[in-house]
Amino acid sequence: MTVEADFDPLAEEFARDPHAVWARLRADCPVARGARWDFWALTRYDDVIAASSRPGDFTSSLGIVVPKNPVSGRRAPLHFDPPEHPRYRRPLNAVFAEERLPTLEPGIRGLAAELLEPFVAAGGGEFVAAVSSPFAGLVFADILHLPRDYARELNASGERFEHAQARFDEASAERENQHLYAECRKLVAGRKREPLDPREDIVSALLEVRIEGEPLDDEFVAGSLRQLLVAAHVAPTALLASAVDHLARDAALQRRLRTKPGLIPAAVEELLRLYAPNQGFARTATRDLEIRGRRIRSGEMAALVLPSANRDPEVFVDPEEFVLERSPNPHLAFGHGPHKCAGVAVARAELRIALEELLARTSSFERAGEPQMLGWPVYGPETLPLACS
């Protein structure tokens, strides 16, 4: 059955300003049909909450992004719903627990300083390549206890994979994908030989999981690690670049945060709301469903459009505006329900520390050119030229 499309995620209009498209759809067609990939987009806050909370109706087991990424089997924890999901998620919760932040923050701050010092000394440059991307990749690599030089090589491979995926270059994406898988297999083999504390190491934690008394297959653990490597890089990279771009266009806000750095955590929450990077995070309908008069058929995918939900005027007053001390601020930047991001505390700390260090090391910064934006399913700058002093 053919359903007329309501928007095209690859259209020039959408790439230029997806928020204008989401605003139109929220008002006129809140359950919208994409022009490609046979999917629906849920654009209203309440619908995203409901779909995220009902794995019996919307499953993660058949893929979590539109368009589907080719995967060789299900990966934990993202491709599992309750009651299976907690078995895989619980070990990760310990590694990313907020209680571990005092241990992790010095390393995160040191890495931010290491990347920002030459960037600021040079008067700026291309922020994503110089700071945002390596920062996200190396923070996660530190959590994996990887040597820094090796981590940079792994991050570069991840960047090439993401670049190829964004341009639908399947051959290049698969080449880097296989390289990442091979490296993850080596990491798993190394942890089996020399395990670390599973409360502090993701690989060791997954290797300790038992299902009906049996350990997870090594290839399953390697595949889950490969998925986490990409997930932990894509969203934080785009989010930090979006946040810095916002500040680059608001000198008054920069001055206020430099004068009162205690306001930075509140700014982080509002920046998370405005610039949630995941547009194509998705579920698959397990049965025919009707939402706001639209029929979503069993087997069809529905994108939970977090950037749109976070600007829903039925939930947020002045939703398109940055409100520094917005309260309440129940944004969905990290998702909702069983699959809410495990790394919430670390991601918040990453963004806060990077902004603290950038603001402390500069008297001002501004755009030095127009950013090039990422395309669906991610929202945020792919490049961000900055001048700083």
Question: Mind sketching the topology for me?
Answer:
Blueprint (H helix, E strand, L loop, with lengths): L11 H5 L1 H11 L2 E3 L5 E4 L2 H9 L4 E2 L25 H11 L5 H21 L2 E3 H17 L4 H19 L3 H24 L8 H7 L1 E2 L2 E2 L2 H31 L2 H9 L4 H11 L7 E4 L3 E3 L2 E3 L4 E4 L1 H4 L34 H18 L3 E3 L4 E2 L7 E3 L1 E4 L1
Parallel strand pairs: 2-10
Antiparallel strand pairs: 1-2, 3-7, 4-14, 5-6, 7-10, 8-9, 11-14, 12-13
Helix pairs in contact: 5-6, 5-14, 6-7, 6-10, 7-8, 8-10, 10-14, 12-14
Textual characterization of the structure:
- The protein is about 50% helix and about 10% strand.
- The termini are far apart.
- The radius of gyration is 20 Å and the shape is globular.
- It is built from 14 helices and 14 strands.
- The strands form 5 sheets. It has a 5-stranded mixed beta sheet with strand order 1-2-10-7-3, covered by helices on one side. The chain has a 3-stranded antiparallel beta sheet with strand order 4-14-11.
- About 45% of the residues are buried.
- It has a single domain, classed as Cytochrome P450 (Cytochrome p450, Orthogonal Bundle), CATH 1.10.630.10.
